[in-house]
Structures are given as structure tokens and as C-alpha cells.
Amino acid sequence: MTTTLLSTAGELHARTRAGRRAVVMTMGALHEGHATLIRTARAIAGPDGEVVVTVFVNPLQFGEGEDLDRYPRTLDADVKLAGQSGADVVFAPAVDEVYPGGEPQVRITAGPMGERLEGASRPGHFDGMLTVVAKLLHLTLPDVALYGQKDAQQLALIRRMVRDLNFGVEIVGVPTVREEDGLALSSRNRYLSPAERRTALALSGALFAGQDRHAAQEALRARAREVPATRARAEALSAIGESRAAADAHAVATAVPGGPAAVRAAARQVLDEAARLDPPLMLDYLALVDPSDFTEIGDDFTGEAVLAVAARVGTTRLIDNVPLTFGAAS
């Protein structure tokens, strides 16, 4: 399909709109993860709607010593990939189009949630992110905006901003896209040497280890619920050839520490081993949090959670996460 490249909000507002407008916001250097977002946007907008992909490297999101100047800028390739994925428009404004008076004196603050995890590691990052997202929502006027779940804290904050400040837009989260070896797709992956990439696989490896531990625990809990914790239960298990240890599934499944503590321990073991590799993985944080406010969950927690990790390998900082649900309905 033909994809139109625009650089001003006036050009975008002049377009005739029929169906829904779906927007995918990016900083460029598009990859398959972005392509998945665009294809999802195309499906939501439908044949009569419009898909707009923004390409803007936001200076407010980069702190001192971060890679603003180093960040890849590949607009021609981005327009091509966006078009192949179903975009009608690529909106690539200059900095003075987004910030016509220079850096804005009035900004959106991310509040306490924006000071945790990524916010603690990158002070001011989420204030800059929310400010530009708010501006781009006003400039593009979408019905729906899509963001990747790889940036889980970012997605949670955007949802909170839209709800708290009454933005009239639907926010859709799209699952993380991974490479064949499990590494979450990121524009920063291109900075990794082959040896650094091998070490970086510990991020997804740790998350999968925690995910596996969680799945095993939930399976034990499900088994414990199926048969009452009585002598008859033990006899029933014995009758089908299960071991004495299996007869104690109920106790194992409800033991403390278990649940979140065991998930954290499984993930941390992988990260500790990666810290001894050459080159080493330098852990920033491993956290198991409530996605509503990104505070750590306790061992009695039930509901949706996010297991998140951030680390440096060489000079490259990477993040990743997986969603988990504790205490599935009995």
C-alpha cells in the first residue's frame, strides 16, 4: 500500500477521516515488534479506518549520559516497514513541531508510580514520556493508540494518564515480540556484540524460569483443590501410584515461602549465574509487581502481576517482563 510521509500536524489534520484512526507511537528504528503493533492497529482500524505511525525521538526521555545522539535514525527504512505492515501515514515531526517554544515549561508528571523501577533508574524519564505521549495524542487525534507490553511500566502509566486526565482515547497493549532465542525485540539489540548477546539472553531466561516456577506452583494448587486435604485424598493419590510426596501436594502448594518468593528466587538464580559470565550481566533490578501501581507484591497476593527485569550488558541497557496471574479462581 502507499504510505504518506507527513511532518506537520496541519498536514495530518487536513486528511479526510472516515473510519477509526489507530496510532502507533515509535522513536523509529522500526523492527518486527513495531510491525506487530502496526498490523494489530490495521486490524482494529479496519479497511475504512486509518493507521498512523509516529516517528519521533523525544529528547525529554533521555537523561544525562543516555544515548540520544546515538539512538538510530532510519526514517526511509521505517517508512518502508510501516507501509508493508499496513500503515497509511508516517508522521515524523521535527523537534520544533512538537516543542515549538523549546522544552516545555509545563509537563505531565508521572507521580509515585513513575519514580519506581525504571523511574528510579532513569529520573525524569517517565515525565518526559508522558509529556510527549500527551502531545502526540493531541496532534494525531486517534480513536485508539497501541503500545507494546515490553515497556510494561510505560504502558501502565499511559493507561493511568488517559484515565486520570480524561483523554478520549482507547489504549491497547500488544504482547511482547521475541526473537527466536527468546530475546525481546528492541532497537537497542543492535548494539550488542555476539558475546554480549549471549549474556543478554539471561534476561528472558530469568523471566522464563520464574514463569515456569509459577506454572508449577499453580498446577500444584489446582491439584490440591481437586481432592480435599483428607486421609481419603492421600489414599486416592496412592491408589493411582503417586508417591508419598505427591500426597502432600496441598501442603507444598500452600507453603510459605512459596508463590511470589519462589518465583523471584527462580529468576534471580539465572541472573546470578549471568553475573559471572564474560562479559557479565550487571543487574539493575528484578521485581515482581502489581501492574496497577508497580509496587512489589507480597506472598499472599492474588491477581495479575508483572515479573520485570532490567540490566546492562556492556554499555547497552535492556528491559524485559512477563505477566503472571497468582491464585487463579478456584
TrEMBL record:
Any one Gene Ontology cellular component term annotated for this protein: cytosol
Pfam families: Pantoate_ligase (PF02569)
Swiss-Prot/TrEMBL GO biological process terms: pantothenate biosynthetic process
Listed GO MF terms: ATP binding; pantoate-beta-alanine ligase activity
EC number of the protein: 6.3.2.1
Residues noted as binding ATP in the record, renumbered to the chain: 27-34, 148-151, 177, 185-188
Pathway where this protein functions: Cofactor biosynthesis; (R)-pantothenate biosynthesis; (R)-pantothenate from (R)-pantoate and beta-alanine: step 1/1
Subunit annotation: Homodimer.
Keyword ATP-binding: yes
Residues binding beta-alanine: 61
Additional comment: The reaction proceeds by a bi uni uni bi ping pong mechanism.
Gene: panC
Protein family (similarity comment): Belongs to the pantothenate synthetase family.
Protein name, as recorded: Pantothenate synthetase
Job of this protein: Catalyzes the condensation of pantoate with beta-alanine in an ATP-dependent reaction via a pantoyl-adenylate intermediate.
Keyword terms, alphabetized: ATP-binding, Cytoplasm, Ligase, Nucleotide-binding, Pantothenate biosynthesis
Places the protein is found: Cytoplasm
UniProt: (R)-pantoate binding residues: 61, 154
